Amino acid sequence: MTNSSPLKVALVTGAGSGIGRAVAQVMMEDGYSVVLAGRRPEPLNELVEIATAAGQNALAVPTDVRDPASVDALFATIEEVYGRLDVAFNNAGINAPAIPIDELPVEQWLNLINTNVTGVYLCARGAFGLMRKQSPQGGRIINNGSISAHTPRPFTAPYTASKHAVLGLTKSLALDGREYNIACSQIDIGNALTELSVRMTKGVRQANGQIAVEPMVDVKHVADAVRYIAGLPLSANVLNMTVMATNMPFVGRG
Length: 254
Fold this sequence. Notes:
This protein has helices at residues 18-29, 41-53, 68-81, 106-133, 157-176, 219-231, and strands spanning 9-13, 33-38, 58-62, 87-90, 139-144, 182-190, 192-193, 204-205, 211-212, 217-218, 240-244. The protein is an alpha/beta fold and 254 residues long.
């Protein structure tokens, strides 16, 4: 990004690995100054070093999206350093063991909901507030949903419930953001190959109880989809996009 280019600032949560890391890298390639948020500082700092060596701009801000004070500190840092935010990619999320609901400890349910729902809410809240008051006003919030925002897998009630909640939040923000030139999108991802999903290449429980190996898709296609949404003018929006392995069991699942 040259000095004559307008400042473009993006936030990526869960930026230390997987989808978040891939998205952060393409956003930096596109000239954004990228704020890298995540609980583990080491991979964030490693990504900053890679960006710096490539002449790109990145800032690591270790953040626990479950903690309101930590998220407030994140957005205070963004405002202090850059004065604005153009794109927020709410990516941080976790899963729970695929076991019957009565066997799942309540503590794991609460941790998942606090991360996948409250964490997205807190970061969307911070982004919305900054985008609303900055000049020029507006920006784009992109939430990482899931195929599970529409259809569950067996024994995934906590995760499925959390992603249905994200879908409702996305639609509400898309509506409430109109007055302030804030667009909100959701990208629903199916079987992107990351460190966390590699286990699926060995077999996944299906609706009929069988275990089957499912096709996966390169995470770069997800990053390119986020890049496309982020590059749209604020007068245009992709409300929902599904990026999935073509032959995975979603259409016709069950």
